[in-house]
Amino acid sequence: MQEHYQPSAVEPAAQTKWAEARIFNVAEDTSKPKYYCLSMFPYPSGKLHMGHVRNYTIGDVRSRFKLLNGFNVLQPMGWDAFGMPAENAAIDRKVAPAKWTYENIAYMRNQLKSLGFAIDWEREFATCTPEYYRWEQLFFTKLFQKGVIYRKNGTVNWDPVDQTVLANEQVIDGRGWRSGALVEKREIPMYYFKITDYAEQLLNDLEDLDWPEQVKTMQRNWIGKSRGMQVRFAVAEDSKAGLSGDYAEFLQVYTTRPDTLMGATYVAVAAEHPLAAAAAEANPGLQAFITECKAGSVAEADMAVMEKKGMPTGRYVVNPLNGERLEVWVANYVLWGYGDGAVMAVPAHDERDFEFANKYGLPVKQVIGQDGQSFDPREWQEWYGSKENTRLVNSGEFDGLDFQTAFDKIGAKLQSLNAGEPKTQYRLRDWGVSRQRYWGCPIPIIHCESCGDVPVPEQDLPVVLPENVVPDGSGSPLAKMPEFYQTVCPCCGKPAKRETDTMDTFMESSWYQFRYMSPKFSDGMVAPAAQAYWQQADQYIGGIEHAILHLLYARFFTKLMHEEGIVGVKEPFQSLLTQGMVLQATYYREPDGGKKQWFNPAEVDVQTDEKGRPVAAVLRADGLPVTIGGVEKMSKSKNNGVDPQQIIDAYGADTARLFMM
Ligand code: ANZ
Ligand code: ZN
Description:
The chain is an alpha+beta fold. The chain has 19 helices and 30 strands. Strand 11 and strand 12 form a beta hairpin. The two termini are 29 Å apart. Bound molecules: ligand ANZ and zinc ion (ZN).
């Protein structure tokens, strides 16, 4: 017997024994209760980081606990293998994304195995293989035929130098990350999922999930259901030039606060609104402003922090309640894609309008009062937008009403004037899944001049992505490969062109939870018997950064698969645990006028006070001081990662696992 614990001898011996006895390999077994424990599968970026160790150890602890309690436990592992980092690596190192990805998988699989998790490795798959994505393509063609997927123009970021579409994160200060060229907006045809048709279901079904309340709230806010009214302001007689149809008659806005209508002091429209275009005809200054607005970011996060800017149009509309003339402005904070692309601005009670009105010297008219509190028209106070314990003021016949009564009465009045009606609105947009990238699942559509967009017939699937391609960062490689895109139309047999866009990689992670149930099934996404047994993941574990998009898309896909009769459940993950961030100290130097330089904690010697708090730090290499930054999320960008492999090598996997718990 060794005096000291020797992890490098003990752990592999135990792991080999488990593997030989196949103790973590499971099959459907109705004699035992089942437990499906799923951890978010990794992107094969190169090597494991501490976030992975934490995520998978939590899953493993639960799995083993259930195993020891007599459950038939499924704990699978696989690879979310498509995505941009492989293309970036290809550009940097001139190696094919496929090769890079498969090598990373091989390395990380060994790392995961050395951690000794109770994983059924016989179920492993990578989403970049045709055996996986062929079912996604088949599903795509079915949904396209059903109309759940449709094609329309969407706006993308276009890099005029690299001749390529950029993802939002590749646009830095309005310029392409590689070329530095000013990014342009372009309209190109793309495929969209009608996720908006499922907004209500996605919202309601949250109720029955054992998920953290915080995550449910994030999903609710993302779906963003609001009850309000469409209100129509008549276009003033002197303001109709250049407008036609309904637009010449009235300007329609969407509001959640019809109770504040008497406080509207101007109306604002998005740069894309026809009224803006009409007013700009004879106004070059306004035209220039509209162009500027359209070039800007459309990301909602950017909109929220952006400086509010606007210009008057010189056009007027009439308030349907009191006949007041209100000037129409073009404002960059009004989104064309939401509601009617126009707002009735109530600066006294809406913070965005308040900021805008103060900036441009527009009137502020109070119509809501709270217990005789005085109103300061320069500084925003919480209660200005409040719906609770408030009464209408300065609103004529509606004075004294509380929020709900005012909402209903003004609503009824507008309806009787044919100037508005109730409207429920969702913030959620349809899901655009086309990506002008190489390393993704090919969209299985053929474009024929006579027949239009034709889905690839089932017997011709999968459309295989060629794996020996090394992208160079300019344009989409598939669009430059006639051997890929030249084909014939499945309907008429004439020469036709294959779609060269690939799918958003959120597609693959939207149904992998079911694929694990029968990973080798060769007749569809999931074997019905396996799904009937495993149902859904009992426990899902992963990072909070996926609280919105991934979880929403996986829930949406499950509903679509349920409708198609592929699965018998409507939700993929019954219980959710978000594991939190792994943190670590940061150290840096900031050379004059230079970029911050971050030092890994392993390269730094730290002095602490009697309470163990760091007070000074020096870089071991040169003995000179470094600045102590905060404790932050472990990440490459702050160079504060600790490599789990070093801990495993020195102290063993059990130590690493226990420490992370
Ligand atoms: C007047 C008003 C007064 C508003 C007030 C709010 C407070 P949610 O709840 O998120 O749906 N709005 C409408 N369309 C818009 C657009 N295309 N771009 C930017 N803002 C828009 O938000 C609805 C509110 O957002 C609407 O109610 C409208 O401003 C604004 F004290 O109308 B409100
Ligand atoms: Zn054809």
